[in-house]
Write a structure and sequence with these properties.
By secondary structure, this protein is mostly beta strands. It is 4% helix and 47% strand. Strands 4, 5, 7, 8 and 9 form a five-stranded antiparallel sheet that branches.
Length: 557
């Protein structure tokens, strides 16, 4: 299980706040409070400083969040960088701080990838000196030019992070900007990390779009390649600006894709949505159009490549039974692809039961929910249908046809998923097939409240505990590096005493290695990095529910 406080939401330009998953439920969609926070007698106070010069930061936004106390408050720091929360109820609090042009941080974080520390407040207690330092964000700037070296205006430029999903690298979009009339762009608000930059011509001038012989442009990655695998990384440090990241667009012969879409009754899917996403490209980026009243569609200016073409009726929240979808793979090689016929069907249904440990079932208040998702991110629909787990622990959720997996939300504290079974077969890692118009029943999701636990301490060559670096735990079987949600790989940091702890790993044989560098979360799933760590790794095995303590040493110190 990941940290509860792990989602980053971009609000009001470059101000970022961290939102707890449970707090969305407690406070409603979008983080808007729907319950009047109860008053108490406890106090939280501290200061916010600039990490580079130690100066107090005024007008930094500080949020105190305690889901168990049903409170979510915010305040701004004063001219001395001080903040204070009064009349707080007893509870377990996280403090999240943000300010424009600074990287958001939590109280107790030693680095951005770490989880913040929880502050436990009792009635009448005052917790002081809860200080947080913020680091300035970085900037990537440059020019985008066409094949003749002329400025390319109105081009979308993305700063992306590399993430490994099931052993494959995917570029995940982040901050973006558009080029001006001089072809210049500037992407701000970037935390320290490695980035990849892409330029995407979203629309051609009217004259060029009407000329079938006029070239279009592929999505181009810095410094000037249409192949994402050849993109060069750009390293951003704390508060640094890296300019002259210039991109030369790659011209290509574009084509159009056209055809028709009908629903499950053979009627034109008038007003439906059609999207086109390149397979293996930048996650979440797509083009598309609306299906015409007669069910026909045309998508123009498509660069060569392999695409996923999806059609779906407009989604109406609360009415998932009306949603129909279809998907097909389309290859484009510079020539028009016409006459595509798509037949949509309603989503399938998956139902089953959650099995709890007997020792937990009688005392756990349940608020779990289930979502069925495609195992291949390229093949996923925009399906927003989460099934509630009922009081009798049964559930039902919609699913698209194809290979799917189950996501379980709001799992009881101290519990983890032990296995997912379909027809008595364990499909936790492989996923399961869902047929079109199928009602798949009898799915079992088994939880355990006795998860495995691996802890220990890391020391240097003199036997002194060290707090720098990262600990990576990963399966000895390389095939498991591609498991769903990479549940066989964990990255954790060291506390001030050199201690680490990892909970909820599946039983099996593992490597554990110490990295001198502070690794980012996305690096831990990089197969090349894991193979490098093998040279200094220690082996161990975990049985079901076992607790293991390890002593590790750093290498080369």
């Amino acid at each position: 299980m990941g940290s509860l406080w792990s989602k980053s939401i971009r609000l009001a330009g470059s101000v970022a706040i961290l939102v707890a998953a449970h707090a969305v439920t407690a406070f409603g969609q979008g983080g808007q409070a729907q319950v009047t926070p109860p008053k108490g007698t406890a106090i939280l106070r501290g200061h916010v400083f600039d990490a580079q010069n130690g100066r107090p930061l005024r007008r930094a936004l500080v949020r105190s969040m305690a889901p168990d106390a049903r409170t979510n408050s915010s305040t701004m720091t004063d001219d001395q960088g001080a903040y204070e929360f009064r009349e707080l109820p007893a509870g377990h609090y996280l403090l999240i701080v943000s300010k424009t042009n600074y990287v958001s941080a939590q109280y107790g974080q030693s680095r951005q990838s770490d989880a913040g520390k929880t502050v436990t407040l009792l009635d009448g207690q005052t917790a002081e000196k809860l200080d947080v330092t913020l680091s300035r964000t970085g900037v990537i700037a440059g020019h985008v030019v066409d094949e003749y070296g002329d400025p390319a205006p109105n081009v979308q430029v993305l700063a992306m992070r590399s993430q490994f999903i099931r052993g494959r690298r995917r570029l995940m979009p982040g901050q973006n900007a558009s080029t001006d009339d001089l072809g210049e762009y500037r992407i701000s608000g970037l935390g320290p990390a490695d980035y990849y930059v892409s330029a995407n011509v979203r629309s051609l001038p009217a004259a060029a779009a009407a000329d079938e012989d006029a070239p279009g442009y592929a999505v181009t990655y810095f410094p000037g390649t249409a192949n994402a695998a050849d993109a060069q990384k750009v390293t951003i440090g704390v508060g640094t600006t890296v300019d002259q990241i210039d991109v030369a667009l790659v011209p290509v012969k574009t084509a159009q894709i056209s055809g028709s879409v009908v629903d499950g009754h053979g009627q034109p899917m008038a007003g439906g949505n059609l999207s086109l996403t390149e397979r293996g490209g930048v996650a979440g980026t797509q083009s598309g159009t609306q299906i015409r009243p007669d069910g026909t569609f045309v998508i123009r200016n498509v660069a060569p490549g392999e695409y996923v073409l999806r059609a779906q009726t407009p989604f109406r929240r609360g009415q998932p039974q009306t949603m129909q979808t279809a998907m097909t793979i389309v290859s484009v090689a510079g020539h028009n692809v016409d006459g595509i016929q798509i037949v949509a069907t309603e989503l399938s249904t998956v139902s089953g039961i959650v099995l709890l440990d007997p020792t937990a079932s009688g005392s756990t208040k349940l608020s779990m929910s289930v979502r069925i998702v495609a195992t291949d991110p390229d093949m996923s629909y925009a399906v927003d249908d989460t099934g509630r787990v009922n009081d009798d622990l049964t559930f039902e959720a919609r699913a698209q046809a194809g290979r799917n997996a189950i996501q379980l939300f709001n799992v009881p504290n101290g519990s983890v998923v032990r296995s997912v079974r379909v027809g008595g077969v364990d499909v936790t890692d492989a996923g399961f097939e869902v047929k079109a118009n199928e009602r798949l029943t009898g799915v079992e999701v088994e939880l355990t409240n006795h998860p495995t636990s691996v802890s220990g301490v890391v020391t240097d060559g003199r036997g002194t505990p060290t707090s720098s670096g990262s600990v990576v735990v990963f399966a000895q079987d390389e095939q498991k590096w591609e498991a769903l949600n990479t549940r066989y790989i964990r990255l954790t940091s060291l506390d001030q005493d050199g201690k680490f702890n990892v909970n909820g790993l599946p039983p099996g044989d593992y490597f554990v290695a110490v990295s001198d560098a502070a690794l980012a979360p996305e690096q831990a799933s990089d197969p090349d990095l894991l193979k490098q760590l093998l040279r200094q790794a220690t082996t161990f095995s975990l049985n079901d529910g076992e607790t293991k303590t390890l002593s590790l040493k750093t290498i080369g110190r």
